[in-house]
Design goal:
The protein is mainly α and 400 residues long. Helix content is 74%, strand content 2%. Strands 1-2 form a two-stranded antiparallel ribbon.
């Protein structure tokens, strides 16, 4: 019995100590705690938690069990909408994750998304191509604009030591005002939108719309399928990625080892901006058919921070976290239809970020629990050994 307990303790310990195990545990605990607190909030305000989870289930699966046995039981449109809303969140999560692995905190993904939207719109409107290659060019332009928008904060950080948090926040506001000014100056634009983008520049797909019940799902899904393996390969399978991670762990040690720390900081910021710019391509060319004059931030970049941290800056983790956050966003309309305020989904998202930020506290609790189980198992093993091998009775003084 003691051996079994000791094996369980070692298993829990290894899971808590290994990097992947720690990230999985932290994410799961953060999600569970967030939903538990949200349930308490709903109960305190008279909202039925069942309605909330029913709306989430319909969002993720398209299944409505209240209409079982009818044609309305499964609606693929919910799934298509949920995926297309998740696409830019996954990309901004990759943006945050790549910079974070280099020891940088890119708060500017929101501005880089806007820069990507601007680049895609400019190419789509101004380049007079009549083939589908225009869509490819517009996507590449979006990524390039995002990378260039992250270049200056990267240079400021690498050469002058300017905090990337401060500079990227400033660049967010510069991006939205500059983008609006440029889009308004394009031929045919008004104070709210540009002219319609040509069909050959769009990522929309009649086939994807058809199989998902006329949702807005588009070929931006291919961008995700390319970028996630690329993200993993760059960071984990190349010497460039090794240097990026080394700089993130310890810049002084990386510099002493002969690595080009400054160039790696600039490169990581630019690649981070490229991912965010591609998120802008998904929005500009897939979701909307025209360039929009934005009245304010849409928070794709800011939500990407939550996605990147919840996913542990790992490619697959970011994918799953992006789908979760996208589901919470996409399900807000269904929640409102079931008399659940959309703020509940926002509360859950915020709580997930809060509990992920408490990673050190969660790690401390897990380590204490593992240590307690290990000590209990050792005591049980010692006691069992003592029971099986009793000590001989002491001889009386003066005996034979």
């Amino acid at each position: 019995m003691a051996e079994v307990e000791l094996k369980k303790t070692k298993k829990h310990k290894s899971l808590a100590k290994s990097e992947n195990g720690r990230l999985i545990l932290t994410a799961l605990i953060a999600i569970v705690l967030a939903f538990l607190v949200a349930i308490l909030v709903m109960l305190a305000t008279g909202i039925k938690p069942g309605n909330f989870f029913s709306a989430l289930l319909r969002t993720f699966t398209g299944l409505d069990f209240s209409k079982a046995g009818t044609d309305a039981f499964f609606k693929p449109r919910y799934v298509g909408e949920f995926i297309q809303i998740s696409l830019p969140l996954i990309m901004t999560g990759l943006s945050l994750g790549f910079a974070y692995r280099c020891g940088l905190f890119n708060i500017g993904a929101e501005g880089q998304v806007i820069a990507g939207i601007l680049g895609a719109n400019l190419v789509a409107i101004l380049v007079p191509w009549q083939s589908k290659s225009l869509a490819v060019l517009a996507v590449l332009a979006a990524g390039l604009f995002g990378a260039l928008w992250a270049l200056i904060p990267g240079l400021l950080k690498a050469h002058l030591g300017v905090s990337e948090v401060v500079s990227t926040i400033m660049f967010n506001y510069m991006a939205i005002y500059l983008s609006n000014a440029v889009l308004k100056a394009l031929p045919g634009s008004n104070t709210q939108r540009t002219i319609d983008l040509p069909d050959q520049a769009m990522l929309t797909s009649p086939w994807l719309r058809e199989i998902t019940g006329n949702s807005r799902l588009h070929w931006g899904i291919l961008i995700i399928l390319i970028c996630i393996p690329l993200y993993n390969i760059l960071l984990n399978r190349t010497s460039f990625g090794y240097e990026i991670r080394a700089v993130g762990f310890n810049r002084d040690a990386a510099r002493y080892a002969g690595m080009k720390v400054k160039s790696r900081i600039v490169a990581s910021m630019m690649i981070s901006g490229l991912f965010a710019g591609l998120a802008g391509a998904c929005l500009a060319l897939g979701t909307f058919k025209y360039g929009r004059i934005l009245p304010g931030f849409e928070n794709y970049g800011f939500d990407g921070i939550a996605v990147g941290l919840l996913g542990g800056t790992k490619g697959v983790g970011i994918l799953l976290a992006g789908l979760l956050m996208g589901g919470l966003r996409s399900g807000q309309a269904l929640m409102q239809a079931q008399r659940v305020p959309l703020e509940i989904a926002q509360i859950v998202s915020a709580l997930i970020v809060l509990f992920v930020a408490m990673q050190k506290a969660i790690d401390f609790i897990l380590s204490r629990m593992a240590k307690k189980r290990r000590l209990e198992a050792q005591e049980m093993k010692t006691q069992e050994a003592a029971d099986n091998n009793p000590k001989p009775a002491k001889e009386e003084e003066g005996g034979k």
